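User: Fold this; tokens only.

Assistant: Input:
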Amino acid sequence: MNTTTNSSQTSNKWLKHASQKLSSVGIESADLDALILLEYCLGMDRAKILAEPDLQLSPRQTKVLNELLSRRVKFEPIAYITKKSEFYGRSFFVSRDVLIPRPESEAFIDLLGSINLGNLTSSIDVGCGSGCLGISAKLSFPKLSVELTDNSKVALKVARLNAQILSANVEIYYSDLMKNKPGPRDIVLANLPYVPDAYPLSPTLEYEPSNALRGGKDGLELYRKLWAQIGQQKSKYVMCESLDQQHPDLCSLAKSYGYKLVEQLSLVQLFVCEN
């Protein structure tokens, strides 16, 4: 897609052009996205960019910017273009092999902070993807031992890289949910695929890995499998993220294994073992 000529121009002119292009296809965050692309390409802080509106772009920079813009115009997520996403105040590396961390998932860490950890020491992030949950848990609560598992080897590579970048002392390994290392943990964090198979996706979501989004006919297929494992192991606390309309079914599922809902924040539910 030819978004503009590759001749040199000022940063301010390119920002206006990019914002108009993005707005024309219905991207609501057009101004911010254009600025993020410029930041990423130039390797400059946005405050400096905005303070120098007449900053001259080289023909090479303009060419690269237009290539990035072409990708965003086709609704490719900004996080995949820049290869990073913010989560709980930290920057995580992301690729198209993992879901982009969501602000609503930060509720996991907030709920973790609401638990009286006391003698609770072990936790596991099941289906870790980028590792944002488990790594954030470890960095926020250093005394907690944290395991991260996934059944995607490419996702595990991303999680390991993030653990290295953020200096998080966590254990990361391949597993079918909790099957490969059975046994109770004090706390289970589970943000599993929960989008029903027939549920329509936005153009942006179409870029994300389907196997990390789709959770079967009603979206709870993997949660049923996980709860069956938890029911045999009896972990103390379990946190799950799902759609609002799935919460009653998830509560019933948890109850059938001896757990009750104690708190809900955003899309995340916190269950405790009653036995």
